Give the backbone structure.
Amino acid sequence: DVKVTQSSRYLVKRTGEKVFLECVQDMDHENMFWYRQDPGLGLRLIYFSYDVKMKEKGDIPEGYSVSREKKERFSLILESASTNQTSMYLCASSLGTAFHQPQHFGDGTRLSIL
Amino acid sequence: KNEVEQSPQNLTAQEGEFITINCSYSVGISALHWLQQHPGGGIVSLFMLSSGKKKHGRLIATINIQEKHSSLHITASHPRDSAVYICAVLMDSNYQLIWGAGTKLIIKP
């Protein structure tokens, strides 16, 4: 079974802090994704990556950056956290052509910015 | 108007009832996904379909491409089916995924 592991289930940070969310997958998937999920809204894609050192902006990249130095790890960085970035963050990975294959999700990180 | 609409937003039913969750979309698609999100947060892919019908255990997913509509059915529902069910469509114009807001299902014993 594919395992996607997010480093924290719950995280509390302060406004202005630099925040790192880590995601690791163990199935050698080419594609990795970061989403945020807010009540009443569908998942919104922040960034995705289809290969090491490659990244593509999703629908809401502002205020975020990503890093993919190794195939199994995809990091989401909040450069200067703000209260409107309080959300559930979900990492996913998939094989092959980016959006055609089912995505495998981590358990999510519930991030609160105070 | 959202490109992917799910209905109902919330559904509470008794154990054993037949459940239907609907997904309507307004764009051309090449595939549609149904996913399940448990209260803990993790999301699991249930089905990916582009035509007809798929069945897995007590879950059935159907899609009508002409009507731009898909349904997820649960037979003999059980409290462990309580979750948020999410529909996502893969657009055929740019191969991006558009996500529905989800249907929160509660099955009472």
Notes: Chain A touches chain B at residues 9, 40-45, 88, 90, 92, 97-100, 102-108, 110 (CB under 8 Å). The longest strand of chain A covers residues 87-94. Chain A has a mean pLDDT of 93.
